[in-house]
Design brief:
It contains 12 helices and 12 strands. It is of the alpha/beta class. Strand 3, helix 5 and strand 4 form a beta-alpha-beta unit.
Length: 367
């Protein structure tokens, strides 16, 4: 009855932890990959006004021109992105799905840095592609030296996620230019997931879309403005690719939510610097609290830390996470995001009180 392709899929390990959270009375929840602040009031009011004014029907498939123009202008002015065309999507997940569907033929090889965002390999497989994982342990840097051994005549796409989920690592500018040289040499398409670009702390952030014209740059409002449930994103790239993505969106997502598109125009005028500075403090608090007992690569961005499971007592990440859950701490096994089972992910998008409790429990498990 069920299509054979579904045999490649398992329920998300993140969702399993979410389900567990419902059963614990007062969990210390460091598993959630979304901001702990709410959508800015001005943005909510704009959405409500749009709904009350009757802006509730389908928009054109590619998104309303006012939003598209504003996103494209900011992308070019602030990040130097060279992409010719833009479309509005149902979140970055929608942008990635459309891009993979229009680009991947069965048997195409797709380079994915490991650790990776959980959806990447599954959508690649859905399209008939073959994931090829680039091991970036222990520092999680995507470097030319790590990419080159994985390129074959079947290689078509390189995925970049910077800042990264789950590691928080940001691609260094000097590496980006060298990666572009590789992409040009082997005629690769780059798909750049930049959903966490506003959450960058101590390092210069640059988009690879600034250096390489054959890039599809995906971004959205879910993390930056806490609009996770509103499903609003965008894709910027070569016209020939974006046109095909628009064509496919007509038959799948139809369009991004109409009221959210109006609110997105307003959101781009709101400064989120206060929240970003708060997350930098939370990152420092958790890293400082765990550094004596855990091996940590201090993240440059996003709002995740990816520590190594303490040696000795636990053989795998799942064993460690199971024990943490017994202590009411919710974290995610690293193998959800990786071909290895040596680390775990925690999110510091949580109140300081919750972070304090979490650090205390983690340190007790490492003694």
């Amino acid at each position: 009855m069920i299509a054979d392709r579904m045999g490649e899929f398992e329920a998300s390990g993140i969702r399993k932890v979410f389900d567990l959270a419902q059963k614990i009375k007062n969990p210390v929840n460091l598993s959630i990959g979304q901001p702990d602040f709410d959508i800015p009031e001005e943005v909510k009011k704009e959405a409500i006004q749009a709904i009350e004014n009757g802006f509730n029907r389908y928009t054109i498939t590619q998104g309303i021109p006012e939003l598209s123009k504003k996103i494209l202008e900011k992308a070019r002015n602030e990040r130097g992105i060279k992409g010719e065309s833009i479309m509005i999507t149902s979140g970055v997940a929608g942008a990635l799905t459309l891009a993979f569907l229009v680009l991947i033929n069965p048997g195409d090889e797709i380079l994915i840095p490991d650790p990776y965002f959980v959806s990447f390999k599954h959508i690649v497989k859905l399209c008939g592609g073959k994931p090829r994982f680039i091991d970036t342990y222990p520092d999680f840097e995507l470097t030319p030296e790590r990419i080159l051994p994985h390129i074959t005549p079947r290689t078509k796409i390189l995925i970049i996620n910077s800042p990264s989920n789950p590691t928080g690592v940001v691609c260094k500018p000097q590496h980006l230019k060298e990666i572009c040289d590789i992409a040009r040499k082997y005629n690769l398409i780059i798909i750049s997931d930049e959903i966490y670009k506003k959450f960058v702390y101590d390092i210069e952030y640059q988009s690879i879309g600034k250096f390489y014209e054959n890039t599809v740059t995906c971004n959205g409002f879910s993390k930056s403005y806490a609009m996770t449930g509103w499903r609003l994103g965008s894709a910027i790239g070569p016209t020939k690719i974006i046109d095909e993505m628009m064509k496919l969106q007509q038959y799948t997502y139809i369009c991004a939510p109409s009221f959210a598109q109006i609110a997105g125009i307003k959101a781009m005028d709101i400064s989120m610097d206060e929240y970003i500075e708060d997350y930098k403090k939370k990152r420092d608090f958790v890293c400082d609290g765990l550094k004596e007992r855990y091996k940590i690569t201090k993240p440059d961005g996003a709002f995740y830390i990816f520590p190594q499971v303490p040696h000795g007592t636990w053989n795998t990440d799942e064993e460690f996470v199971t024990e943490a859950i017994k202590h009411d701490l919710l974290i995610i096994p690293g193998s959800v995001f990786s071909e290895k089972n040596t680390h775990f992910r925690l999110s510091y998008a949580a109140p300081f009180e919750t972070l304090e409790r979490g650090v205390k429990i983690l340190n007790s498990l490492a003694t």
